[in-house]
């Protein structure tokens, strides 16, 4: 990516950051088994890349010197079999956080002092990849049954019989605004993104975290047939259903 065509504004750079971060998080959570298998220690030096289209890739480092963008940690695969799986994933997460910041501030080289400060503030509002992967970032608990009646359009809750039910967005604009205020600090357990009343969310019945449906590949229609939803992290811990 040439600097001339790269994101230049704070908002554009932050959008690039969040997309790359979402890709890394997908590799280390939802797609973790695939990622783990690709990182064979017998292979050459491998790097984990997150792309602006929210896809991830494990591949060899760029051949050109200097590279168009800062490169992620080299040789993440070498330590895989010599460490506890969770510790290794946490280590990859730490290196990924460093890479994401380096890319963001490389792209922001032409920002002024206040713009750099605002960019860092926006990034700092989100949990780091390490905090999500190592589960050290406290996330909001799933709203109680009394609260969930006002949950967002496309969100889901479960009744006492365990059935998933969709909840419609309140018709009144004022109610919708109250909704945003009440749940605005809820964060997706996968990408760390903040609650948005216009997006579909689903809650895990095990850890009680909330997720964007798109992050865990659950649609509203599919959610209707799920009696007890188990997120990717809990599925890894307890075995696939």
From TrEMBL:
Q: Enumerate the residue ranges of region (Disordered).
A: 140-188
Q: Which GO terms describe its molecular function?
A: histone binding; transcription cis-regulatory region binding; transcription coregulator activity; zinc ion binding
The protein's superkingdom reads Eukaryota
Q: Where is composition skewed (Acidic residues) in this entry?
A: 174-183
- Where are the compositionally biased (Low complexity) regions? 141-153
Cell compartment(s), UniProt: Nucleus
A GO biological-process term: regulation of DNA-templated transcription
Instruction: Quote the cellular component terms of the Gene Ontology held in the record.
Output: nucleus
Limits of the PHD-type domain: 185-237
Recorded hits in Gene3D superfamilies, A to Z, give:
Zinc/RING finger domain, C3HC4 (zinc finger)
Kindly indicate whether the keyword DNA-binding belongs to this entry. no
What UniProt keywords apply to this chain's record, in alphabetical order?
Chromatin regulator, Metal-binding, Nucleus, Transcription, Transcription regulation, Zinc, Zinc-finger
The answer to whether keyword Transcription regulation applies is yes
Identify the Pfam families for this entry. Alfin (PF12165), PHD (PF00628)
**SUPFAM superfamilies membership:** FYVE/PHD zinc finger (SSF57903)
Q: What family name appears in the similarity comment?
A: Belongs to the Alfin family.
- PANTHER family xref list: CPG BINDING PROTEIN (PTHR12321), PHD FINGER PROTEIN ALFIN-LIKE 2 (PTHR12321:SF39)
Give the function comment from the record. Histone-binding component that specifically recognizes H3 tails trimethylated on 'Lys-4' (H3K4me3), which mark transcription start sites of virtually all active genes.
How does the record describe its quaternary structure? Answer: Interacts with H3K4me3 and to a lesser extent with H3K4me2.
Domains: what does the record tell us? The PHD-type zinc finger mediates the binding to H3K4me3.
Q: What is this protein called?
A: PHD finger protein ALFIN-LIKE
Species for this entry: Helianthus annuus
Lineage of producing organism? Eukaryota, Viridiplantae, Streptophyta, Embryophyta, Tracheophyta
